[in-house]
Amino acid sequence: MPIDWDKLTDEQPALAVIPRGLRDATRTRVFKKGELLYRRGQPPKVMLCVLSGEIRLVRFALGGTEIVLQRSRGGFVAEASLDAQTYHCDVVAATDGCLLQFPRATFQSTLENDPAFNHAWIRLLAREVRRLRAQSERRSLNSAADRVRHYIEAEGSDGSVILNQTRKGWAAELGLTHEVLYRTLRQLRESGDIVIEGERFSLSVPMDT
Q1: Rounded to an integer, what distance in angstroms lies between the CA atom of residue 58 and that of residue 188?
Q2: CA of 73: how far to CAs of 12, 29, 30, 101, 117, in Å?
């Protein structure tokens, strides 16, 4: 199916930096919820950009608990695979959706020969480093309540965040079981620490800085 780049760049302006040669080599892939797209240890041959739905990079603890290392509901995912010999985790579809597949070799050569695209890629990676740093800080917190509050503060604005995933998925991202998350949300709401309005979660009192 031909890719309508004008429509894509309207929906995801960051894709406007993709040069024509790389666009011509790009293909779409439709995925289904629960589908294992790429397995840990498999050599990466493409770079991935999520157009719709949700993709997660996951590993599993010895007890079988899912650990979410990255999730994307739009934009590039598994960026580190550009220079990796193999995937370091499983790439799993959390919902139905669609993504772009850029041939890795073409992607690499374009970065080497197109300065504007190279600079845009560096900026994207810098934003991802900031996001992962916040996630790492959050997971270092011992209290489930502190992880919830940190997420609202770091991922939202003005002390509020609108959840764009299931609560079970949110629990996995926080490094909690969904039972612990549900119990923590109930306790925080009953204590007046947070306000829950549908999928909007707001801090009653900002976290200490």
Answers
A1: 28
A2: 11, 15, 14, 15, 22
CA distance 103 to 46: 4
- Among 45, 53, 14, 54, which residue's Cα sits nearest to residue 27? 45
Over residues 114-120, mean pLDDT = 93
pLDDT attached to residue 10: 87
pLDDT value of position 193:
92
Q: Do residues 170 and 145 both lie within one domain?
A: yes
Phi and psi torsions of 33, nearest 5°: -55, 130
Q: Tell me the C-alpha distance between 88 and 69, whole Å.
A: 10
Q: Which domain holds residue 174?
A: 141-203
Q: Which position has the token pair 């990255």?
A: 70
User: Averaged over 84-106, what is the pLDDT?
Assistant: 94
